[in-house]
Structures are given as C-alpha cells and as structure tokens.
Write a structure and sequence with these properties.
single chain; mainly beta; OB fold (Dihydrolipoamide Acetyltransferase, E2P); 4 helices; 7% helix
C-alpha cells in the first residue's frame, strides 16, 4: 500500500471535500485540511511526495520544509480545488500548506536524565512531556499529540516539549488485516487478534506494523482487545529467494520480475542460498548493513518459512477452518487467509509452511501469511512490452506481467501457474500474476502455431517444415505428428485427419 503502488484520489478525501462544500463556503485557497500522518514518496513515474493521514486520506505536498519521506507530520492548509497532480498515472489533489510540524502517535522509552524524565522516540528525537501519568524511567510508552509546543530546560539542555500529550503503555505488533465474521482485525505473527481504531488506507490481506495502546475498558467491534489512537505503517509479506553477493551477507530478494527489493533479514533460521522462502517483517528503510552492500532496507522481527504455492479448491475444514485441496493424492492445507474468495472456488495460495494447527482437526499443515488470489493456470507466449517486458499473452487473450519469468524470454511458449492481482508496480499497469511458477507447456503434436490446438492455423507451418524451409528444432518436433522421430510425408495423413476431426 503506502509507497508500494500508485496512488489515486482517496474516496475519503473526496467525501471530506464534498461534505465541506455542502456545509460551508470554501476558503479562497480551497478546502481547509489538517491531519496527522506520514510523508510517503510514491513509486512509479512521475513520483510524488504524498501526505498519508492516519484516516487514509492523502494529498500531494509541494513543500515539506525540512521533513522527509517517512516522517510523521501534521500538515495544515487548504486542498486546491482547481488542480491535481499526475502521480504515476493517478490524479492526486494538491495541497497549499500553511504550516507543517512533527506530530506524534508512536512508541518510545522514558529515560531519567539530568533530573528530567525524557521521552526517547523510536522514530528519533528526545522530548519532554506535559504529562507522564505515573510512568517512570525505563518504561515503554505510547505518546499521541498534535505536535510540539516550545521547549523546556533539562539540566541546562533545552529539549522540545510535546504539549497536551496522551500517554499509555506501548502496544506494538506486526501482522496483517484479516476478515473476522463481518469485521476486520489485526492477526499478529504469533496468532493473536486485535481490533484497530485506525486502518488508514490499508485493506484486507495487507501486512502492517501497528503502534498504539490497548483500551483498558472497551473491546472493539470484533469483541477483541482494542488498539486505540494507533499509527499504522506498511510492512512486508511475500515470496522470494535467498541470495548472496560479494559485498553482502545472505539476503532476501523479493519476487518482482527481477526488480524486487533486496532486504537484510534479522532471522534466516538456517536457510541457505537459493532457498525459496516466504518472509514477513517490519520494514526499516534506514538500516545500512555495510558501506559496500547496496541494501538499504531491512526486515525487522521477520518470519521465514519454506514457500508453498499452487492452485487448489477452497473448502471448509472439519472445524470450519479454511482449507485448500490441491487435488487427488495431494495433501490438504489449512490456510490463514482466504480473502474474498468463495468456498468451492479454485484459488491460488502462496505462503509459509508451518506445523499443523490442533484447532483444525485432521492434522492439516498450515500455510501461514498466505496470499489468496484467483488462480491463473494457462499456456501462452512471452511478447515484447514497453513499460514492462516481457509480457505474457495467454491463449485466452489475456495480457499479464509476471513476478517470475523463470529464465524464459520473448518468443518462448510457457505455462504459468500463479495468482492474479492488479498491477504489481507503478511502472506496469497490466494485471500481475503473483508468486508464479513458469513451466513448459505440454507439446501437442501438429500444433505448429503453439495455440494449444491443431487446426488450419498450423497448415502453413507444417508445410514449411516438410519442405525444409523451417529449421526450428521445436517446430520440426511438433510436425512429427505420428511421433516416429522424423517429420516427413508419413505425417501428412494423420495431420489432415486431426484437422478434419477424424482422429
């Protein structure tokens, strides 16, 4: 989500704008806008600096002052009603800023120093607090406030004061947003579930890192512990390969058609170079493992499991858990997430394989953190593209961009098995096939055109082979219809019978 796909105008921002127009006359500079959120540099071209508010609305910011992408700030100003910016092909409302300052919805540690109880934020900086409410040195706390309000003297050192702050014990967790019987909740890596007060612009299936505090009195809409005033940030969950180069330690290369992000992992758990794995973790773009290593991102608190993927049927397990059945003779697996897929439908799943879950009787192993997408299992040909190449043209006429090309290139006929999703990157807007396998299609004798059928489209190629005009080894093999190892006149009768439907 944030920073990983193109942005379009937020529906919530649009509703705010329309609502403001209905109830009040617009300011000469536009619609008043004030929100706390994160500065994000969008992917794709042209790239834009966006302010993503905690409620999910976002606007383009032209002048961030001294702030940079990743900073949490409150922006105050007016949404321009007359212009919008092209951000990687999507229109985003422009904002005229009257003020911008740091805001707080983050965890940190209280540290007693020079006679002052200071808040050392995880996001950087040391601050004094208006109110510590009985918290003491060394405790992890969550602070929310609209900004700083001056400074105070702390043993001769002037430090910024967070005015009007709220304080509570810090809750922080990495997980994903999953459906929960009519509502959505945060499912953490260790299996706990929480309701979130703020989900921002994230949706079901997204991996997120959350900081906030647990409401001591009320539960949320799903009747689970309620995380209040929370900040929510993009996290990573996906497939890839462990690689090693001359200047880096063992690293994780995420799938994305050769352009996936390269990450340092905190935990590799004995996996080795070349292993295909499914990894989740909290993104840290500020890490720098080695001056000679090009990696600029790390995954903190990551999980890592062997990758399992494939198309199967979504079914109810013995205790109504979600199970995918990969077919006769294949084991069934419990899955953690089934998205918007219907039970009984053919779906593609990809995730990390872990031990069986005793709550789902029958001993089915679990594919955790899994993707759940419509299944793509088809043959086709790689064709040249423009923004993204190669593109996969299926026999059904669909055009896809693949996360994994499998070493094949333009002109190759292949079979693709994976999960269909929207555009994977900002530079390629064709539907994407995620975590896909690439195989050679089963050869059909006589199918010279490579469309999966023997018909009149194959006649010209068949004749060219028999006349010795065509020297392609694969086409010569396909013209050997009677499979006697030679493409010659002995194949003509059978080839003709197949086209006429007599064989």
């Amino acid at each position: 989500m944030f920073g990983s796909i193109n942005f379009s105008i937020s529906q919530r921002l649009l509703m705010v704008t329309v609502g403001a127009l209905c109830v009040a006359s617009a300011h000469a500079g536009g619609i008043p806008y004030q929100a706390c959120g994160e500065l994000v540099q969008t992917s794709g071209f042209p790239s834009c600096l966006i302010h993503v508010a905690d409620d999910g609305t976002f606007v383009r910011v032209s002048d961030p002052g001294d702030f940079r992408p990743g900073d949490r700030v409150t922006v105050d100003g007016f949404v321009d009603l007359n212009t919008a910016s092209n951000c990687a092909g999507s229109l985003v409302a422009n904002m005229q800023i009257t003020s911008i300052e740091r805001c707080f919805a983050e965890c940190g540690t209280l540290v007693e120093q020079n006679g002052c109880l200071r808040f050392e934020s995880d996001r950087g900086g040391v601050f004094a607090l208006d109110d510590t409410e009985g918290f003491s040195d060394g405790e992890r706390v969550f602070i929310s406030a609209t900004g700083v309000s001056g400074s105070v003297d702390c043993g001769g050192e002037s430090i910024p004061l967070i005015g009007g702050n709220q304080i509570a014990s810090c809750f922080e967790a990495f997980g994903r947003i999953v459906p929960e019987f009519g509502c959505d909740s945060l499912l953490t890596a260790n299996g706990d579930r929480y309701d979130l007060e703020i989900t921002g612009d994230f949706d079901r299936g997204d991996f997120v890192f959350v900081q906030g505090y647990i409401d001591p009195v009320f539960t949320g809409i799903c009747e689970q512990p309620w995380v209040r005033s929370n900040a929510i940030m993009a996290a990573f969950g996906g497939a890839g390969t462990l690689i090693r180069n001359a200047n880096c330690e063992l690293s994780f290369q995420s799938d994305a058609n050769g352009f996936g992000q390269l990450y340092v992992l905190e935990n590799t758990e004995g996996y080795v170079e070349g292993d295909r794995v499914f990894v989740t973790g909290r993104i840290d773009n500020a890490c720098s493992p080695s001056p000679r290593c090009p990696i600029i991102s790390c995954l903190r608190d990551n999980t890592i499991d062997p990758l399992v993927s494939g198309c199967g049927t979504l079914e109810f397990g013995p205790t109504n858990c979600a199970v995918v059945n990969f077919g006769p003779g294949e084991p069934s697996y419990q899955i953690e997430y089934f998205g918007n897929q219907s039970f009984g439908s053919e779906i593609f799943v990809a995730g990390g394989l872990v031990a069986s879950d005793p709550t789902c009787t029958g001993g089915a192993s679990v594919i955790r953190h899994n993707l759940a997408l419509p299944c793509v299992d088809t043959c086709g040909v790689f064709e040249a593209g423009f923004e993204c190449t190669p593109l996969f043209l299926s026999d059904e006429g669909d055009i896809f961009w693949l996360e994994n090309t499998g070493g094949f290139t333009v002109g190759d006929r292949i079979r693709v098995v994976g999960g269909r999703q929207g555009g994977c990157t900002g530079i390629c807007l064709f539907p994407c096939v995620r975590v896909n396998d690439v195989l050679r299609c089963e050869l059909v004798p006589g199918d010279i055109s490579g469309d999966g059928e023997v018909d009149i489209d194959d006649i010209d190629g068949f004749v060219r082979v028999l006349l010795g005009i065509e020297n392609d080894a694969l086409l010569i093999q396909l013209a050997d219809v009677n499979m006697d190892t030679t493409a010659d006149g002995a194949d003509v009768q059978l080839f003709t019978s197949i086209i006429l439907g007599e064989a």
